[in-house]
Design a protein that fits this description.
The chain contains 13 helices and 16 strands. With 458 residues, the chain is α/β, with parallel strands linked by helices. The strands form two sheets. The chain has a 13-stranded parallel β-sheet with strand order 1-2-3-4-5-6-7-9-11-13-14-15-16, with helices on one face. A three-stranded parallel β-sheet has the order 8-10-12. The longest helix has 15 residues.
Length: 458
C-alpha cells in the first residue's frame, strides 16, 4: 500500500491513470489497490460525461471509504462557439448541461461531509447555476478549498453585463446556513453570488481570488470590505477584472465624493491587482492598508489584453488605455506607508519596502511613469514582464541599468521578458535587451512557443 501511494502521488498530473495501471497488473494488485482508500480520493469529471465516466466516479466515491475527497468537475466543451446560450428560466431541463448536473448531483449525494476541495469550471453559466441551486448543506466540516470558475475572458473587460440575464441569481454556493469551519481558500471567477452571504459564511480565509466580476453583479465597497475584514490572516489576494460599487445606501450629495472603507490586511504576502478601468482601479486601491508583510506584487490591465485587441488587418498589438494612474497611485500609497505599523493611520497605504517579486502583464503607460515606483522597490529580486509595451520595458530597463552600477544595491536574481504574441518577441524590445546585456544583467527572453501562457512563478 505504501509503495502504491508513493507511486500514484509522485506525478499528480497522471495520478488517476497510475492508479488504474496498478489495478490492471494482476488480481492481487487490483485487490491491494482497491483496499487502499487513499488512492481514490481524487474525483475528476471532464466533458463529455458518458455513463461509464459517471460509473467510475461512483466507484471512486465508494473506494475512498471515509477518506476526505477532492472533487474536480470540468464542463468545458471543446466545440463551444464562444457564445452564452440564452435560456428561459422555466425551460432549463431541455439542455444537456442540466442533465449532466443532475447526474453529478445524484452521485455525489451524502458525500459532502468528506469534501476537502471542490473545483468547478465551465464556459457557460447554467452548470454553475444549477450546481449552486442544488447544493444546500448545513455542514461542510472538511472543506478547505472552493473554486468556481466561469472560463470566459470577456467578463474581464469594461461595459460587459452579466449574461444570461434570466439566470442572473444571485446564488449562494451551498445555501444560506452552510457552515464551513475549515475553509481557507476561495476562488470565484465571473460568477454572481450573494455577497452579503460571502463575508458571513467564508471567514478566516488565507487565500482569496475574485476575478472578472461584471459591474452589474459585483459587491459594493462595503460588502467587499466586510469580506476582507472577516479574514485578518489573509495571505494571498487576487482582485482582477472587477471593481466594487461605491456604496449600497442612498446617493451622496453631488458635491461629496463617496467614502471608500479602508481595510487593514496585516498578513498579506501576495497581492495581484487587475483593472478594467484606470480611474476605477485608482479608487479601488484606496481601500487597502498593506504593510511590510507584502512580498509579491502583480499588476494586470485586464481591459488591454493583446489577445483581445489585435488589429486583424495589420496584426499589430495595441492597448486600450494608459495605466500611468495606477503606477502613480501605487507610488503615493507606498510613500504613505507608516514606518511603525503599531500606530495605524486611517489612510490607505501599500508598503513597498519588502516586495521581492514584481510582475506586470498586458500593460501600457506613458514614458517614465513607472520609474518612481520602481525606485521604491529596494528589496526587489525578481521581475516578470509579460506582453508589456515599449515604455514599460524602457522604464524597467533604465532603472535596472542604473542600479547595476550603483554601490550597495541588491542585484536582481531573475528578470523574465515574455511575449505571447504570434509574431514572437517584438522588435521594440531589442534595444532594451541589448542594453541589459551590456550592463551585465541576465534576462530570460521568451516568446509564445517557448512557454505555456499563464505559467506561474517557477
Amino acid at each position: 500500500m505504501k509503495i502504491f501511494k508513493t507511486y500514484a502521488e509522485s506525478y499528480p498530473a497522471v495520478r488517476d491513470q497510475r492508479v488504474v495501471d496498478l489495478c490492471l497488473v494482476s488480481t492481487y494488485w487490483n485487490a491491494v489497490a482497491n483496499d487502499t482508500p487513499q488512492l481514490w480520493t481524487k474525483i475528476n469529471l471532464t466533458f463529455p460525461f458518458a455513463d461509464h465516466h459517471l460509473a467510475a466516479m461512483l466507484r471512486r466515491v465508494h473506494a475512498s471509504k471515509l477518506e476526505k475527497i477532492d472533487i474536480s468537475i470540468d464542463f468545458r466543451d471543446p466545440s463551444w462557439d464562444g457564445h452564452e446560450p440564452h435560456y428561459e428560466i422555466n425551460e432549463p431541463t431541455l439542455t444537456k448541461e442540466f442533465v449532466w448536473v443532475q447526474n453529478i448531483l445524484t452521485r455525489l449525494r451524502n458525500t459532502e461531509k468528506r469534501w476537502k476541495s471542490i473545483e468547478v469550471v465551465s464556459e457557460v453559466w447554467l452548470p454553475l447555476y444549477k450546481l449552486m441551486e442544488g447544493w444546500t448543506f448545513t455542514k461542510l466540516p472538511s472543506l478547505e478549498s472552493i473554486s468556481m470558475k466561469r472560463d470566459n475572458y470577456m467578463f474581464g473587460m469594461q461595459n460587459i453585463r452579466f449574461d444570461p440575464v434570466p439566470l442572473i441569481g444571485p446564488m449562494t454556493l451551498f445555501g444560506q446556513n452552510a457552515s464551513l469551519p475549515r475553509l481557507c481558500d476561495l476562488s470565484l471567477s465571473a460568477v454572481h453570488i450573494d455577497w452579503d452571504d460571502a463575508f458571513v459564511t467564508y471567514k478566516n480565509l488565507r487565500k482569496l481570488e475574485i476575478n472578472n466580476i461584471t459591474y452589474d453583479v459585483g459587491p459594493s465597497f462595503e460588502q467587499f470590505a466586510a469580506m476582507l475584514s472577516s479574514s485578518p490572516r489573509l495571505e494571498y489576494l487576487d482582485v482582477s477584472g472587477f471593481c466594487p460599487e461605491h456604496h449600497t445606501g442612498p446617493d451622496p450629495p453631488a458635491d461629496e465624493d463617496p467614502e471608500i472603507p479602508v481595510v487593514h490586511l496585516p498578513a498579506l504576502k501576495e497581492f495581484t491587482f487587475g483593472w478594467k478601468d484606470v480611474d476605477f482601479g485608482y479608487d479601488f486601491l484606496q481601500m487597502f492598508q498593506i504593510g511590510n508583510s507584502l512580498e509579491s506584487l502583480t499588476l494586470i490591465d485586464t481591459e488591454s489584453s493583446p489577445d483581445c485587441w489585435k488589429n486583424s488587418q495589420t496584426g499589430v498589438q495595441h492597448w486600450v488605455q494608459d495605466s500611468e494612474g495606477i503606477f502613480e497611485a501605487l507610488y503615493h500609497l507606498g510613500s504613505e506607508a507608516p514606518r511603525n505599523e503599531d500606530d495605524m493611520p486611517p489612510r490607505p497605504f501599500i508598503s513597498m519596502c519588502g516586495v521581492k517579486r514584481l510582475r506586470i502583464i498586458s500593460t501600457r503607460a506613458a514614458q517614465s511613469s513607472l520609474i518612481d515606483l520602481l525606485k521604491t522597490l529596494t528589496e526587489l529580486e525578481e521581475i516578470w514582464l509579460e506582453d508589456v509595451d515599449m515604455n514599460v520595458l524602457k522604464d524597467v530597463t533604465s532603472v535596472q541599468v542604473e542600479s547595476s552600477g550603483a554601490t550597495g544595491c541588491r542585484p536582481l536574481k531573475r528578470l523574465d521578458l515574455r511575449w505571447t504574441w504570434e509574431e514572437g518577441v517584438p522588435s521594440f524590445a531589442e534595444p532594451s535587451i541589448l542594453q541589459l546585456k551590456n550592463a551585465g544583467i541576465e534576462a530570460t527572453v521568451q516568446a509564445a512557443e517557448d512557454w505555456q501562457v499563464g505559467q506561474g512563478w517557477s
